[in-house]
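Thread: "does anyone have the structure for this chain?"

Original post by V.I.:
We have the sequence but no experimental structure in hand. Need at least a predicted one for the grant figures.
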Amino acid sequence: MSTQPPRDRDGRLTPSPPEWSTRPALPFPEAARKGLENEVQRANLRHATGTIRTKRANVVAEVPHWEQLRSAGEAIKNRTLRHLDQHLETLEASLTRAGATVHWAADAAEANRIIVDLVRATGEHEVTKVKSMVTQEIGMNEALEEAGIAAWETDLAELIVQLGHDFPSHILVPAIHRNRGEIREIFREEMGTYGTPAPEGLSEEPVDLAGAARTHLRNKFLRTKVAISGANFAVAETGTLVVVESEGNGRMNLTLPETLISVVGIEKVLPTVEDLEVFLQLLPRSSTGERMNPYTSLWTGPHEGDGPQDVHVVLLDNGRTNALADPKGREALRCIRCSACLNICPVYERVGGHAYGSVYPGPIGAILNPQLRGVGSAIDKSLPFASTLCGACTDVCPVKIPIADLLVHERHRVVEEKKRHQANQFEPAMMRAASWVMADHHRLEAAGRASSLAGKLLPIRTIGPLPPPLSRWTQNRDVPMVPEQTFRQWWKENRDERA
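Reply from O.Q.:
Generated one for you, tokens below.
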């Protein structure tokens, strides 16, 4: 396997952006503090998410049967997940009948081996990509680069992230943490290194930035013979894959190359074409705040003389069957990656997507990541607690995923896992002591009297940083000092017992 930096046909070095699998492994509390310190990012996020929220609210208000649509989406997804094995077999048969080659991948490593082998078989050393979260999930760009294959991002936001040697921070708008000025500087400094340079005097107007990206990518589209895509939906009865997008880069990837490799999570399957009617109304309104998305591309295998002639579909598990086996947790597999929960989340708006340590940020990511990867790492243990449980995410989810309930469910899993492997018994001992106190009202009253005495004697209003292990609590919270008077004491003084 080649370890030399991949080059394009003009001999230019390809970008080497960090991939998700190599990002710094920081638990959410530590990563969140870094996000909070970035004032420019916070301003960018506040403006962008506020704009998208307003647009979404306006277009949703236009639909009198919006709640019925949400219920229909929920029902279709639930029914599909209950019989997922059958629908996947139907999908494989339909894809094969249509002329596509189906590959099954149990995990990221197997998927990357399949993709690398398929690209190598063509003799090519570069590919173009239409935005695909699942390829980011498995670290595909990194695997291709290690094999000497350049992967060019063609979605505008993904291009910004790649040229900026950055990480995506949002499901829908990966460069949401960047403002126009930052994007202009990235284009001016990086485009010429990896292809057609940005024009002289490039402004930060959106139309000019988009034009620079279009010119930069056009040569890659026209020369690259292999494309890699994801899919928003996969229709079992016909073997049709569906991509919705806003820029047309997807259409270019799906029609110009000779070979097309589509990487699809197994939860993306829908039983029939008629089911698309519901989701093509729910998705654009919930994601971009549009009545419909500008480009909807559907393809069903190869067609002679039209589009790619060699079509492959990689159906990926990578932890999804583990999530499916959880009767409660499987509800998260209804997710259609709209990002509505991110745009309304007060935590995400302040800390940004990088704090979540994964391709899936925000409330839904705080559930999906522990489900897909387990709760063995410090990152995945911390994510279910990255929420205030305000419930706004549940209210806007187009397929009615009870996100707040699932966060509590995942927290329980983390606690149970912690109990099984916990060497330090300090915290369990504290919990047992608290349980003993609260089990009897006499003991609880005595504890209250003792705490109020401490409140009278100590001239402080908040409890500052404490030594370990209590520091894990106080370093992330302002803890008020216990009051000088308990509620029971106040009640006796201010309320007639006969009232």
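V.I.: this helps a lot. Residues 191 and 434 are 60 Å apart (CA to CA).
O.Q.: and Confidence is low (pLDDT under 50) at residues 1-6, 11-22.
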